[in-house]
Amino acid sequence: MSNQNNAFKALSDPTRRKILQMLKEKDLTAGEIADAFHISKPSISHHLNLLKRANLVIDERQGQNIIYSLNTTVFQELLGFFLNFIDKEEVDDNEFKF
What we know:
Layout: H1 3-11, H2 14-25, E1 28-29, H3 30-34, H4 41-53, E2 57-62, E3 65-70, H5 72-95
Antiparallel strand pairs: 1-3, 2-3
């Protein structure tokens, strides 16, 4: 599956979107992320793995902790994907004006 497909799949889930919002504020450990939810730690781990697979988050080991942070490069690529539709739409609109 392509990175873009993985990113869209990851973004389709509200729990993962909330995790991304949390990471927008600051880098967090898995435990800090899990504390914000009423679901099991293995479920949080699954969500984090999907986000990592989509390259939306980066993890870095610091001692015994793994710190998660946003990978803004992928968000820029996704934004570029959507902006291509807007640019095309503007061109198409201008082509049909009389």
